[in-house]
Write a structure and sequence with these properties.
single chain; 338 residues; mainly alpha; binds cytidine-5'-monophosphate
């Protein structure tokens, strides 16, 4: 994203790239619903009953759909004004916002170490921000507004936290599949995105066209963002906090190394300390103290497992559900004598 917004030549309209990514996600989600249902007829029926016949439910998806749209536009603003590594580290503040919304909306409880890790995360991001505001961190700072980039990233973090938790609540509160949910998201975000795009960039669009400045690289960016979005949807559904934690910290490392080669980014000691604090806080957040060996007869207190919080505030249903099922199977086996 950073390279796309800073390279020389015709500059594409960021809001149009957001709409096109939504469009690619819609096509991919429709294909996945088709694969899930097995035939075109079942696919139409699933979409008709779960989207058209449940209008109130579809309207509920408007909220994360709109917020994700704002977030995706803000991320372009941030990537245009901050160097890639600083942008990536600052965006990790979404762990903090997700945790806050999980506590407020889902009434989750955080362990003491998780609160400590959130403080470390904030300190780490602050250090990285301050280190990059020193001179000489990047060679392409001209004409950019660091404060705007930083504020856009923080606003995107708020959007990410709220939309992520809200989407999780909707997804886990019903048996509608994640791909049907994504079709719902795209149905709403595409028209909203087109309106936002015309509102923001009316003169450029009417003068030069909606797809002005698109070349293979911009299409690659569009597909990359769309695939990233679909992966987030899968993370909400299948992955656990440790996996997402590894992925997030890896993203910081990859962004930093790429920035050194692509933009001449200079890694300062303060940046290293800040990034290490951010990565460390991610691991601390997802670290769970070892529990005593499971009692095969089951302990009603263990149902508290359901309240474990994932890295981004998402619940780890699968392991605890599996554990509960295994315990039930064991106690059933004992009762029935098999
Ligand atoms: O985790 P994070 O907030 O950074 O990721 C949000 C991204 O994932 C946004 O681009 C959003 O449009 C996308 N997303 C999606 N489908 C979902 C949830 C999020 O495409 N079900």
């Amino acid at each position: 994203m950073r390279y796309g917004r800073t390279r020389p030549g015709d500059m594409f309209i960021a809001s149009s790239a957001v709409v096109m990514a939504e469009f690619v996600k819609l096509l991919a989600s429709l294909l996945l619903v088709f694969k899930q249902e097995g035939s075109l007829q079942h696919c139409f029926m699933a979409l008709y009953t779960q989207i058209w016949q449940q209008k109130v439910d579809t309207l509920k998806v408007c909220v994360p759909s709109f917020i994700y749209l704002v977030q995706n536009n803000l991320l372009y603003v941030s990537a245009s004004n901050l160097d890639a590594a600083t942008y990536q580290v600052t965006y990790q503040m979404k762990i903090l916002t997700t945790a806050i919304f999980a506590v407020l909306i889902l009434r989750k409880q955080l362990r003491g170490t998780q609160w400590v890790s959130l403080v470390l995360l904030t300190v780490g991001v602050a250090l990285v921000q301050l280190s990059s505001s020193d001179k000489g961190t990047t060679s392409t700072d001209a004409g950019q507004n660091r404060l705007l980039g930083c504020l856009a990233a923080i606003a995107a973090c708020c959007c990410s936290g709220f939309a992520g938790i809200y989407f999780e609540k909707i997804l886990k509160g019903s048996d509608v599949s994640v791909w049907v949910r994504n079709v719902q998201l795209s149905f709403l975000s595409i028209p909203l995105g087109v309106i936002t795009s015309f509102f923001n960039d009316y003169s450029t669009i009417t003068e030069k066209g909606f797809l002005f400045g698109y070349d293979a690289y911009v299409w690659y960016l569009v597909v990359l963002n769309a695939v990233g979005g679909l992966l987030v949807a899968m993370v909400v559904k299948y992955a656990d906090n440790i996996l997402k934690g590894f992925a997030t910290s890896l993203a910081i490392v990859i962004s930093t190394v790429s920035s050194v080669f692509m933009f001449g980014f200079v890694i300062t000691f303060q940046f290293v300390v800040g990034a290490a604090l951010v990565i460390g806080s991610i691991f601390l957040y997802s670290h769970e103290p070892k529990k005593p060996a499971a009692n095969p007869m089951g302990n009603p207190k263990d149902h508290g497992d359901h309240h474990k919080l994932c890295l981004s505030g998402r619940q780890q249903h699968v392991p605890s559900v599996e554990l509960t099922l295994k315990r039930n199977a064991v106690s059933h086996t004992k009762k029935s004598g098999y």
